Predict the structure.
Amino acid sequence: GNSVTQMEGPVTLSEEAFLTINCTYTATGYPSLFWYVQYPGEGLQLLLKATKADDKGSNKGFEATYRKETTSFHLEKGSVQVSDSAVYFCALTSNTGGFKTIFGAGTRLFVKA
Amino acid sequence: DTAVSQTPKYLVTQMGNDKSIKCEQNLGHDTMYWYKQDSKKFLKIMFSYNNKELIINETVPNRFSPKSPDKAHLNLHINSLELGDSAVYFCASSQEGTETEAFFGQGTRLTVV
């Protein structure tokens, strides 16, 4: 079946450091890939997405590129801020067995001032 | 206007009780979901409904029963609550199709004592 694997956290960085959160996936067909962010006490919200191979999603300084050859969708940001502290979820949506979004385990990011 | 709203936000109840969580979306989406998030932030899909019909029912005890009176509502009823049911439950909705993201409610924190 489909699955998403992302690096375990927590990840602790100083402000203005470079961020990478790794995500790889297993899927049949042609899934779309997403990164969601969850701030404390809130629901998940979409951060960025890519719907086909080689697409790059970007938002708020975050980027991720859909790499079909390596089945990856790593999240990057060049300079993190304290306000980026949150839990980040990699996800895929496929239509295998009905439209379903599957999430990775989540990676908690702490950014220190 | 809240896109996906769920009530209550907090629910504390005793073992053995029956409780319901309500969810409503005003986005005109065809598909609604229930997810369970455990204490480690792992997010697992429980159910998916498309136009009031159940299309995904993951391995969930049959004490959990979703009900969709119309495509804007998906309620979750839980019978004979157990300690292990304590978690945050998220409702979400999306338009049908793999390229569209899911919109999440704020979550219901259920504590069974």
Notes: The radius of gyration of chain B is 13 Å. The mean pLDDT of chain B is 91. Chain B touches chain A through 29 residues (CB under 8 Å).
